[in-house]
Amino acid sequence: MTTFATLDALRAACADLPAGSADAAAAVADRQLQLTKPPGSLGRLESLAAWLARWQGREAPLLNRVVILVFAGNHGVTARGVSAFPSSVTAQMVANFDSGGAAINQLAKAARADLTVVPLDLDRPTADFTESPAMSEADFLAAVNAGYAAVPEGTDLLCLGEMGIGNTTTAAALTAALFGGDGEHWAGRGTGIDDAGLKRKREAIDAGLDRHQDILADPLLAALSLGGRELAGIFGAALAARIRGVPVLLDGFVSTAAAAPLAKLSPTGLDHAIIGHSSAEAGHWRLAEALGKVPLVDLGMRLGEASGAAVAIPILRAAVACHNGMATFAEAGVDNKD
Ligand SMILES: Cc1cc2ncn([C@H]3O[C@H](COP(=O)(O)O)[C@@H](O)[C@H]3O)c2cc1C
Ligand SMILES: O=C(O)c1cccnc1
Fold this sequence. Notes:
five-stranded parallel β-sheet; binds nicotinic acid; EC 2.4.2.21
């Protein structure tokens, strides 16, 4: 389905995003004060309930249908020796997702979430961004549209992750384009590359930034030139979620970098998204800070696959359970403070 036929149409949608329901958020804040607990005592669970209500447009937030989307893509920049693993692993892991053997399969089950994997032209890697733009405009828009179309009706919460060997290089290059800095600043070890590989990774990022310097100020052209199909899919899904009233849980460095152009295209562009887990991938905490976001948990994970979003789902379920299920002081006959 072609939702956006041109970059300009996409740009226009990103500049005109719905604001969320301030009334629903205010109703939650008001009810929180009536629940049988000292004000503020549930800490961030209270603001999470209000955040869900705002972006769902519902006074009582719901998490009946939690959806995890994992987008997969292959990257030409792997020719530069930037990953510890070969590109063949991307398609092999997609097969592993399909047969239920990956970490995200277990985390999705544990969090009672539906998992869908969206492979994007795995047999057609993007171009090496040190040599040319990673994608044509048509390829980029096709991936954005695929992401946009992948968000099911009736989703109450959307978790966004990825699989794509080489994509921590891609994500670092895109992040540098959006927020400044270079390969040294943003590159981490991804799947565990050694020192020589990390050097090659930094050099590839710097070469990409140099080659595409004329377009780096344009977030969509930066995503097209330095990004990847799975990152574009995440971007499209995050946009669809915003337009359809679905809050988003982002995963680690790659997932956050993929969605970040939305924050550059509109000052409130990622207000409907939070980061589930602070990845151990160097650069994620910096990117979170640049976006003004505090990840929900830090378990030292650095996997991708939406794993860091999935581990945070129970926290949101806890916020909703307390908010919707607790008695008020009046209902329970508990004396409130004077
Ligand atoms: C077996 C395996 C499973 C994975 N699941 C996620 N990733 C993660 O590692 C990749 C990014 O790291 P780099 O940029 O160093 O290639 C992505 O595919 C990401 O999802 C995996 C990587 C491997 C090897
Ligand atoms: O934080 C991430 O997104 C990440 C880290 C390592 C490997 N793949 C993804």
